[in-house]
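Hey L., structure's done. Input below.
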Amino acid sequence: MLKSLFVFQAVVDFLFGIPLIVAPSTVLSLYGLSTDGTGLFVAQWLGAVFTILAWISWYARNWADSEPRRVVIRAAFSGAVIGLLASLNFQLGPAANTTTWVFVVLRRMGLLLLRDHAPDDETTAGLAQQSPACTPRRRRFGAGVFVS
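Output:
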């Protein structure tokens, strides 16, 4: 399952990344967005980042279960959370349209797929034995306990 998740992530990142690099104004117009030179640069930069993430995901699919792979999974989960919040913020604003809901849906799918692969407390405790910098800190917020 995890290998398929990495392949899915690589394909989605590649399908968004290359068009953003090659034809950013065309891609942005598909979502009803127009921009100036700065926006086109940022779109191309984002396309480059998507391409890098596709490359990492493609090769991470074959890695053994190791610390670097868990770091990639944590980063992907964190990125999906931040991306979902940013997408929802945009969607609730005046520039939103029905086409831009694809960003919300893709980020939500990413969260659902990644949540089953988040390291558990036993894995985190094992990492803490390897390095004191990895020791989880527990903080209480309301009724729940969160590891940071």
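Residues 2-134 form one domain. The two ends are 26 Å apart (CA to CA).

-- N.
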